[in-house]
Amino acid sequence: MLEQIQGLHHVTSIASDPQRNNDFFTKTLGLRRVKKTVNFDRPDVYHLYYGNGDGDPGSVMTYFPFPGRLPGSPGTGEVGCTAFAIPEGSLGYWEQRLVDFGVRTPKKYALFGEKRLAFQGPDGDFFALIEVEDDPRKPWTGNSVPSLAAIRGFHSVCMRIAKQRAMIELLKFMGYHRINKEGQVQRFALKAGNRASFIDLEILPSAPVAVQGAGSVHHVAFSVKNQRAQQEVRSALLEMGHEVTSIRDRDYFKAIYFRSPGGILFEVATDTPGFTCDEDQDHLGLALKLPKQHEHLRPLLEQELQPIVD
Fold it and tell me: What is the spatial distance between Cα 27 and Cα 33, in angstroms, rounded to a whole number?
């Protein structure tokens, strides 16, 4: 069993419009845009990162906004819901805020004894806010959400899968253990981690396979401390028979990727060097930052990329 996994690192999804995506996460949810860059493989497409006050691993939702991208179709083999942690007692604030910002019919409910508020993003993305006690992660209060209500980071992701055995074996190998079950949902957790420590599995054997599009999660990244830990994880996954990519330099972290048995693309990302490697803490996410190999395209990209008005 691996001991290097610390919880979630980031979750990356697909959007259809960069301005609408930016407005939803910074204005409606009050998150901080911690990086404005471009897709390594498609530099004509933004890669936008939103997180808590420090942009901690385990707090950052990222998006590839492909203008005009058609919506995906929900099903198995994907993340069905991404959940954020909010302070205890703040659910009422968020219910009213979402309504005020035009989010249709947020829904209160409980799962595993937790108070939750479910809602959809602008591309039909499924999210939840979950009340959590004493989360020490630093909130962002620069976008009008008070500290007593602001999002701390991720709580969990819920993955929809058709068959459970191989997926459960993988999660256990990664250091997760099952702690609860309610209906068709099983919860797995790390004994110690970065507070983004839960994975829920929703078992849907008769559901169709998801079709990826706007509103779909592209991949889920798990956090490791450094490159040494990442190499240990990679070697262990290869020994288990998983097809794992070589290490990719993503400027703000190193990444490896493999397809999980449930069909969901997993990434293992390092916590280092972090988002302050190319801009200081006070100015995170303000300027367009380009990967080194695309810097020569700056004049063209600054002309062709849709401007984002903050």
Answer: 10
Domain that holds residue 29: 8-304
Residue 226 resides in a domain: yes
Residues in the chain: 310
Q: How many domains does the chain have?
A: 1
Can you say whether the dihedral through the CA atoms of 283, 288, 293, 298 is positive or negative?
negative
Residue 159: which pLDDT band, with cuts at 50, 70 and 90? very high
Structure tokens at 180: 């609860």
CA distance 229 to 244: 15
- Pairing verdict, β 46-51 and 126-132: unpaired
pLDDT of residue 265: 98
pLDDT of residue 113: 96
Tell how far CA 195 is from the center of its chain: 14
Note the pLDDT tens digit of each residue in 60-88.
Answer: 999 999 999 999 999 999 999 999 999 99
Rg (CA), the chain: 18
Query: Distance between CA atoms of 160 and 202, rounded to whole angstroms?
Result: 5
DSSP β-ladder status, 153-161 and 198-203: parallel
Look at the pTM and tell me if it is higher than 0.85. Answer: yes
Q: How far apart are CA 161 and CA 166, in angstroms?
A: 11
309 within some domain: no
Q: Are 37 and 50 in contact (CB under 8 A)?
A: no
Is 150 part of any domain? yes
